[in-house]
Design brief:
Layout (H helix, E strand, L loop, with lengths): L21 H28 L5 H14 L5 H9 L8 H34 L10 H25 L3 E3 L2 E3 L9 H34 L7 H41 L4 H32 L1 H41 L1
Antiparallel strand pairs: 1-2
Helix pairs in contact: 1-2, 1-3, 1-8, 2-4, 2-5, 2-8, 4-5, 4-6, 4-7, 6-7, 7-8
């Protein structure tokens, strides 16, 4: 194949990343900013407005926390896109970025899967005793998961340093030729344990849940409410996983395979890189959609949310009333002064 057909390819089959369109950086910042606002508000409701947590609330709080931690790194990714995909923040920040990304994505998948299992057990096996229903056990489980996620993130950060490719600093890209074997192995580990396995568990839980819900007596108001709530949970979780995590894993897998076995196809690699960044933004939408789970999965969250809105509304009414009284008093004083 003639490498002159590809602008970034040279005789050593070097394929450097192309500058990404500035719209990617803008959309990335907007998505994660919205996710920060929604998850920040959700964390505030969980910590300040819900006084009695159950096991489901514990899982949902940890999901919101795993979604929120990615936001501080978003500007770095935006600058990376704008600066012609050239990493200029140093090796330590690159490793930190990799660790936080790992904690964020893996944590979101784990807690989303556990919420699915919890919902399945609570509805299908509501008469049976289970550890997933016990708040103390779930708290210990979440603490263990966070320890595991931090260790795994540190390991990934240690394994994947910054490299220089043709005077371009590269951080966590398939253009790092020295790391392609590591990327290849890590990708398939991630693809199985953080995509195929969770998706299988989710589909199993919610297929059984849908079957169980279809047998609920819908003649009663309570039965109809349970059915509607559970079916919404099914749709939201499947939609989130299918939209946010599946495309990212599929495109990344295709990218590392093409880079390892067809490295001369530079144009295809660059197209896959752009597609991966687009899927990365789709994965960020997960941060905006997860709060829907709290609305449909936690009655306490809905009550606390409504109380918060009422408090905000009462405060605004009081402030408006005080402001109007102040204005009227000022007008009365001016009238008195003018008469006198």
């Amino acid at each position: 194949m003639n490498t002159s057909d590809f602008p970034n390819a040279n005789h050593n089959e070097t394929c450097l990343p192309e500058p990404q369109h500035v719209s990617l950086a803008v959309i990335l910042c907007l998505v994660y900013l919205l996710g920060l606002l929604l998850n920040g508000f959700s964390l505030w409701v969980f910590t300040c407005r819900i006084h009695k947590w159950n096991s489901g609330a514990v899982l949902q709080f940890n999901l919101a926390l795993s979604d929120a931690i990615i936001t501080p790194l978003t500007p770095l990714m935006a600058v990376y896109f704008v600066k012609d995909s050239n990493w200029s923040f140093g090796d330590f920040v690159c490793r930190l970025k990799i660790a936080v990304l790992s904690i964020h994505f893996n944590g979101s998948v784990i807690f989303l899967t556990l919420i699915s299992v919890h919902r399945y057990v609570s509805v299908v096996h509501f008469n049976c005793s289970s550890l997933i229903k016990r708040k103390l056990f779930v708290k210990k489980l979440c603490a263990g998961i966070w320890c595991f996620l931090i260790i795994l993130g540190i390991f990934y950060g240690w394994l994947l340093p910054v490299t220089t490719e043709e005077n371009n600093g590269q951080c966590l890209t398939i253009h790092q030729k020295k790391l392609i074997d590591s990327y290849f192995i890590i990708n398939f580990v991630i693809f199985f344990f953080w995509c195929i396995l969770p998706l299988t568990i989710l589909v199993f839980c919610y297929s059984r849940l849908a079957s169980s819900v279809s047998r609920i007596n819908i003649n009663s108001t309570q039965g109809q409410s349970v059915k509607n709530k559970s079916m919404k949970m099914i749709g939201i979780c499947v939609f989130i996983f299918g939209l946010c995590f599946l495309p990212l894993n599929v495109v990344r897998t295709i990218g590392v395979v093409v880079k390892k076995y067809y490295s001369s196809k530079c144009r295809l690699i660059l197209q896959l890189q752009t597609a991966y960044y687009a899927c990365y933004i789709l994965a960020g939408i997960n941060c905006c959609l997860d709060p829907l789970i709290y609305f449909f999965g936690s009655r306490n969250f809905i009550k606390a949310f409504r109380r918060s809105l009422k408090i905000v509304g009462i405060r605004r009414n009081v402030e408006n009333k005080m402001e109007s009284e102040t204005v009227s008093q000022s007008v009365n004083r001016n009238v008195v002064y003018s008469v006198s």
